[in-house]
């Protein structure tokens, strides 16, 4: 974190509670063309990256409990690149209604509705292995969709940033689309020491996980990515770099997933509650905002870079 502040433990807990207990996830629709998108009252975030970078696995990890079951599976995963071929919409909202598509009356337009929710959009991967050319319709969505609050660009932690990643980041930057980079599959390069380490794959829990790498090596890798994704002049991706594993659990929680949950809710306009003097805490709530609005939590009143330019804060 070099331009923003990292989430507190309380904010991570609120994010986890929303995704795994307070909200009901459901698949809404697959879309091939931008003009097929329904009108919407719900803030959206999108996930994009090279083929087989782990977008669908991350979406499933976001909404699953830590029990290692197959419940709440949203997106189909595959080892074959190009598994996601359409723009897939997943609603995540309160259990008293959730995010859903309301059919239009008298041949009117459908509409996505759901107070207090967020729409997750899984985009097809780009690169070799995709069955269709990745291009025009997806860029229309990324650059024209007014409800889109942030694009999460996934980069494989082992292979790093590739030319097509840089091309996409440049296009998003040129169009003024809010975006940030997430290092996926970080367990390929770093797994911290912990009291308990296990792996969840297709609903099966395995305890055959060992610590890997060092924190300093992970830091250097992330600093290299930071230098690559930040342009020499002008604004680039959001000034925080997240790393995540959709499979490895560290002391009961998937590695880095709570940080992504927090980033999604913050982008969507979720106001996090701070703990009162009595120690009691309420769940936060969503507030309306435009595409470009960043709604900070109540604690963010100090410098996000710890008083020094480009000094990264680790969480």
UniProtKB/TrEMBL annotation:
What residues does the EngB-type G domain cover? 41-228
UniProt KW GTP-binding keyword: yes
UniProt keyword annotations, A-Z? GTP-binding, Magnesium, Metal-binding, Nucleotide-binding
Is-annotated flag, keyword Lipid metabolism? Answer: no
Pfam families for the chain: MMR_HSR1
Its Gene Ontology cellular component terms are: mitochondrion
What molecular function does GO assign, one term? metal ion binding
Q: How is this protein named in the record?
A: GTP-binding protein engB
